[in-house]
Each structure stands twice: as C-alpha cells, then as structure tokens.
Amino acid sequence: MVEMLPTAVLLVLAVSVVAKDNATCDGPCGLRFRQNPQGSGRIVGGQDATIGAWPWMVSLQVFTSHNNRRYHACGGTLLNSHWLLTAAHCFVSKKKVYDWRLIFGAREIVYGNDKPAKPPQQERYVEKIIMHEKYVPSLEHNDIALVKITPPVPCGQFIGTGCLPQFRAGPPRVPQACWVAGWGFLKEKAYRIAPTLQEARVNLIDLDLCNSTQWYNGRIRSTNACAGYPEGKIDTCQGDSGGPLMCRDNVANTYVVVGITSWGVGCARAKRPGVYTATWPYLNWIASKIGSNALHMAQLPTPPRPTSQAPPARPPSARPFIPLPPLHLDLDPNPLPTPPPPPPHPPTAPSPITKRSANVLSFAKRLQQLIEILKGKTFSSAKGYYEMETTDLPELTAVS
Ligand SMILES: *[C@@H]1O[C@H](CO)[C@@H](O)[C@H](O)[C@H]1NC(C)=O
Ligand SMILES: *[C@@H]1O[C@H](CO)[C@@H](O)[C@H](O)[C@H]1NC(C)=O
Fold first, then answer.
1. What is the pLDDT of residues 113-134, one digit of tens each?
2. Does the C-beta of 222 come closer than 6 Å to ligand 2?
3. 356-397, pLDDT tens digit by residue?
4. What is the per-residue pLDDT across 258-289, written as a single tens digit (0 to 9) for each?
C-alpha cells in the first residue's frame, strides 16, 4: 500500500494535468489518456481500443435532417480546437457543411444515432471543408482535407490533439511498426461499422515493394505510405478513411500522425495493404490553411539540435494512367429532402470541389450495392476501397 502510493499520486497528477479542460487545445500534442498494453496487439484483425487511447481520433458523421440521424462515415485527426485533418474523398458525395456532424472523445459510437452526444463526447458542426486543390478522385491523388470545427471543441477528458511530423522528419521511415485506428468495417464485406473504436498494429511497407507489379502495380506515389502485412489479415477498411496512421517517436515518446487512411483494394488481402496519404509532404499545405503557428503547435516540439533541412518531396510524376473503377457506394439511401437547420454560426461555403469522375460500375454491381446499402443502411462515403484487382489493369503507359 505504502509502496503503491507514489505511483497512485503520480497517476492522479498525470491524469489531472492531461485531463484538465483546455478550451484552446494549445497544450502539447500527442498526449494519451490510457492505452492497451502493447505487444500482442494485433479495423480488420485489430482489437478494441481503450477509452482515451487515441484522444485525437474524430468520427465524421453524415447527418440526415429528415430523421435527425447521424451515420459514421470517416475518421479524422484533431489538430487544435478549430481544425481536424482527414481524407478528401470523404467529401466527394457529401460536400456541404450541413451534411456533417463531428464527434470527439468517443470510443463507442451508434450508427444512425438520433440523440445528441453526451459528455465526455462532444458534438460539433462543420464550418468549412477544405479539400486539397489538386485532389484527383479517380486516382486518390492528394487525398487530404481539413475541416473547420464550429463551435471550437475544448480539449479535456478523452479529447486531445494529435501530433504532425516535424519539417525535418522526411517521409515515414521504413520498416517501422505503427498503429491505425478507426470504426471501419471489421471485415471486407461487413457493410457495417464497428461500434467500438478498433486499433491495430501495422508495419510500414517499402514504397517500391508496394508499387511493384504483384502489389499495387504503379499506383503508389511518393506522397503515399503503405502499411499492413504482405500476407494481409490486418488492415484498415471502409469507414476508416481519413483516420490516422500513427508511428511512435521515441525521442518525444509519443505518437505522430504520419498518414491518413486513403484507399486499398479490398481489405486485409495479401499484397494489398492499406494506402495512406503521408502527412509530411503536406505540412506546407496545412500551414497555408490553418496558419504556421497552428501547424507549429500541432507538431512535435523540436528539441534544440542542429537541423539539416529536410529534402524536398519528390514532385509527383504525371504519367498517364488508367484508373480502377472505385467502389464508391455512393447511392444515397436517404437523400436530404430539405437542407437541415444551419449551424449556430453560418458556415461558409466549402471550397469548390473537383468534378466527380464517372464510376465504371455495371448495372448488376450497382444493384448489388443498392441492396447491400438498403440492408445495412450503410452510408458510403467511407472509402476509396476498390474491389478489383490491380493485376487486371492494363499495362501502364510509359512516358516517352
Ligand atoms: C491550456 O491553455 C493555456 C493557454 O490558454 C496554456 O498556457 C496551457 O499550457 C494549457 N494547459 C494545458 C494543461 O494544456
Ligand atoms: C510507382 O510506379 C509508377 C509507375 O512506374 C511511377 O510512376 C511512380 O513514381 C512509382 N511510385 C513511387 C513512389 O516510386
């Protein structure tokens, strides 16, 4: 008992420091509340996360005004009380700010909930959606977006900000064991989201291997990260989009959001790992939207040591390419009949969005999707997860 006391005191101190409400969220990033003991931890093939394990994890939910319900569609990372980071493809079929609700501090979520979120969860509106100006839906290039939160969300119990890499960090180091988290499908054709936040350990995979013929056959860009296992089995899936890929920084002793869940072929298939938008190549873009100071606050504190300038990101190559038809389940079972009441602060219109590319899905496929959607009332924005094999792709056209 006596021996345990110092530990208990330390714990209470730690929790009271971490859990203290802070309306501005300008404390250190990457603080966690609780976590599963690591090691066996092994989304698809993951485990339930404990509450507060990933305090920056946000649930982006599609809101339907005719029945007042909200449906989880994507994950996101809280950067500060005003901004969260997610994937651009989440907004392809739902681009209006009043289509969305944001849930913070959650572990359990109810799909189709019509009750307001109760503390410690916080529910917020979207003020603005900023998709990357060069987002290409058919290829998932630059699949990154920022969402402005209104009113601002306070950090506190189970809500905190995630860390972005430092400028000098460079692309995520490979190999490295990292973590993904989300409420996405527990298996490829589950067609329903997980009620409890899942977490899974995944390995970062060499981009050249991930890009090779037997794998993604040329679809991978230098701005991506690949994570998973050669044999599949553990992966992100539909509904995990926009959520964080997190790697431990051993110097700062915390997790850094190095990627955003973007796409994959199926889920947890062999040689079809999850593909992520790396955050590091987009630090300047993020700074240009949320401000350099805000970005700086969301980056790991830089210990004073001689810094060599990080090498610039390789410019993305613009090779002609025939894309796969995406499995966007974009048939909306509950089209919004009337615009819902505007958020307390009138939102500004979202930035113009790249035109949606036509889906090359057969009638039968669409019918099947419709049936599945109606069965599971599944909202679909979830993911650029594709069903077709990349090996069916015609050879890439060589640049002459
Ligand atoms: C809370 O916010 C203040 C600034 O308003 C900051 O100085 C302080 O470090 C923050 N506290 C915590 C616990 O993060
Ligand atoms: C992947 O392969 C394609 C086609 O060869 C190439 O254009 C692209 O740059 C490669 N990606 C990376 C990250 O090297």
1. 999 999 999 999 999 999 999 9
2. yes
3. 233 333 444 444 444 444 444 444 434 556 765 543 433 333
4. 999 999 999 999 999 999 999 999 999 999 99
Among all residues, which ones are annotated catalytic? 89, 143, 241
Q: State which ligand 1 atom lies nearest to the alpha carbon of 20.
A: 13
Question: Which residues line ligand 1 at a C-beta cut-off of 6 Å?
Answer: 17, 20, 22, 24, 26-27
Pick the CATH number of 176-280 from 3.40.50.720, 3.90.1310.10, 3.40.50.620, 2.40.10.10: 2.40.10.10
CATH topology of domain 55-150: Thrombin, subunit H (2.40.10)
- Please tell me the distance from the alpha carbon of residue 281 to that of residue 133, in angstroms, as a whole number: 15
* Cis preceding-peptide flag for 342 (omega within 30 of 0): no
Q: Which atom of ligand 2 is nearest to the CA of 218?
A: 2
pLDDT digits (tens, 9 = 90+) for 82-104: 999 999 999 999 999 999 999 99
Positions of CATH 2.40.10.10 in the chain: 55-150, 176-280
Secondary structure of residue 356 in the 3-state scheme: coil
Under a CB-based contact definition with an 8 Å cutoff, are residues 93 and 56 in contact?
Answer: no
Residue to mutate, 174, 262, 317, 393, ligand 2, most ligand atoms under 8 Å from C-beta: 317
The pLDDT mean for the chain works out to 78
Residues 6+ positions from 149 with CB-CB distance below 8 Å: 81, 82, 83, 84, 102, 124, 125, 126, 127
**Is residue 27 within 6 Å of ligand 2 at its C-beta?**
no
Residues 370 and 375: their CA atoms lie apart, in Å, by: 8
Ligand 2 geometric centre to CA of 208 (Å) = 8
In single-letter form, the type of residue at position 58 comes to V
Report the residue among 15, 24, 29 best suited for mutation to probe ligand 1: largest number of ligand atoms under 8 A from its CB: 24
pLDDT in tens, 323-361: 333 332 233 333 333 344 444 443 333 333 222 233 333
pTM of structure = 0.75
